[in-house]
């Protein structure tokens, strides 16, 4: 049984549930057990190698590179959009404002800290951030997942994380948010099969988008209504989620460079492709 961790947000559920519903199967007959947990819990579990396959924040990967390979599928990027730094209307943030972030190892936390090094950070479950700002427990917070689509009318966007990304990277490369990683101790033939199964799951999900969306909604697995679900999936679970493309790879490399230059990593990963599963093994094996 292959243990898989994914977040309970709509794009992760959408990309994995074709396997849960039996629409996609492993060629080797592998069985999957899925667990839905918030992304920072998954990041922490990856640091402890508790799952075979896990959704992770891309910003975490350099810290688990020795234990996990980086998968090429099930990815979420921002492209002109992404997490939002929000605050109450008519408030001015000081240089050392108090902010709620969704986790120490998240991609938005990395970029936020590079942009606001004097801010005082507290970490909360992503579902609690909006309320913390409304209650003035913190001065601001970074909203992620479906929360970016609908938030209280008393809140306004101070800054888009996308804009921070553009400023820091001096580019408009896709913004790496969430990816997937696989434990290196898994035999290579199984690792390739797992990645291929996940790729098929994303393809099948996109092909049967409306049907799968309805099934998720009917089971109360989604926190937003049908219209907002489609909007969210168009942003984060789309054709670019099937397999990393060249621009996305450049974006990941840029994030790793920014993190290294900012002192967050112990080494510089110049090419994230060096950490992919060597799928060409199958061609060599049967050539």
From TrEMBL:
It is an enzyme of class 4 (lyase). Signal peptide: none annotated. Gene3D superfamilies: Periplasmic binding protein-like II (3.40.190.10). GO terms for biological process: menaquinone biosynthetic process. It comes from the Bacteria. Keywords: Lyase, Menaquinone biosynthesis. SUPFAM superfamilies: Periplasmic binding protein-like II (SSF53850). The keyword Flavoprotein does not apply. The keyword tRNA processing does not apply. Pfam families: VitK2_biosynth. Pathway: Quinol/quinone metabolism; menaquinone biosynthesis. Its EC number is 4.1.99.29. GO terms for molecular function: carbon-carbon lyase activity. The active site is at 145 (proton acceptor). It catalyses: cyclic dehypoxanthinylfutalosinate = 1,4-dihydroxy-6-naphthoate + dihydroxyacetone. Catalyzes the conversion of cyclic dehypoxanthine futalosine (cyclic DHFL) into 1,4-dihydroxy-6-naphthoate, a step in the biosynthesis of menaquinone (MK, vitamin K2). PANTHER family: 1,4-DIHYDROXY-6-NAPHTOATE SYNTHASE (PTHR37167:SF1). Belongs to the MqnA/MqnD family. MqnD subfamily. This is 1,4-dihydroxy-6-naphtoate synthase.
